[in-house]
Fold:
Amino acid sequence: MKEFELKYGCNPNQKPARIFMDDGSELPIEILSGRPGYINFLDAFNSWQLVKELKEAFGIPCATSFKHVSPTSAALGLPMSDELKKACFVDDIKGLDKSPLALAYARARGTDRMSSFGDWIALSDVCDKTTARIIKREVSDGVIAPGYTDEALEILKKKKNGNYNVVKIDPEYIPAVQERKHVFGVTFEQGRNNYKITPELFENIVTANKNIPPEGIRDMIVALITLKYTQSNSVCFAYDGQAIGVGAGQQSRIHCTRLAGNKADLWHLRQHEKVLSLPFLDTVGRAERDNAIDIYLSDQAEEDLLADGIWQTFFSECPAPFTAEEKKEYLRSRTGASVGSDAFFPFGDNVERARRSGVSYIAQPGGSVRDDLVIEACDKFGIAMAFTGMRLFHH
Structure:
């Protein structure tokens, strides 16, 4: 297939639309089901690059959940605790522990479930039956992977009455060194960002605390690879081999950090006993449970739940309040998270906010005229910070 005609571009009025190769060669994909659109393919090709790079870095299956050309999360296929399985709504999936790929997607999808509603999925490895079973029951637009088992493809082809988007990509495909895009009739050209993110990138530790354990290095790599395919400005919190909070596309660095930190906090809080034991009605679906949990964890939770008896929509009884002090105390017990930033931290306020979400390790390019103040903020809290010397803007 040398080109694929799209229904329309970003919006219904943007016609005609298609994808094709400039040199007239075959597209590196095969559409196995559905008819992906313009934004679907933007998500597909960006998300595939992310999981491909994560797989190359760690050698294990990984997955990402994408929305509007930025990841909501990316994750390695590592074991999940019982609490995390329940928080991600996959505690009932048979065979989950035997499929690293399914574990990776369960983590990625479960990190920020509200943002992942209607996501695009990328899988580093051949999609198996267990992974397909998770995908089938979630609201999503499509999936890209290097292949699908017969059982997995049969499951996915039944989704959306046979209209679910399933794309197979050639894992050996290597894009041209130069890339182009058109804006307002003007052609932009640049070299592809082929910068490799490796453990050696974190050797320049500029803080008094020089101790970054292997787990911290792993999570900083996950964070920076995630940021490499996230619309800038962006900041990523990572923990336990996955991105747990992504702040994307903000004009201010501190707003990136706040957004990512708030998402990381929600990820932690979803695993608290009070949330895991919420008395949901059997008739409440997963998406509605996400909404209810979001209300329950909000600052106005008690007022919102009691207003007009809204709790009766979700719960068999009104749940006990999760007080602000209880949430703060729980979050204070969370430590060991890593933060990556796609450009330097210009002020110490980013460190202050990151520390509140259990951050122990930071990776950022450095180069600000206020680097000394940012280092001072890290030293105040015993945080270890590495200067990578490399910016990772993505537009």
Observations:
- The longest helix spans residues 38-58.
- The chain has a mean pLDDT of 95.
- The domain at 193-269+335-387 is CATH 3.40.140.20 (Cytidine Deaminase; domain 2).
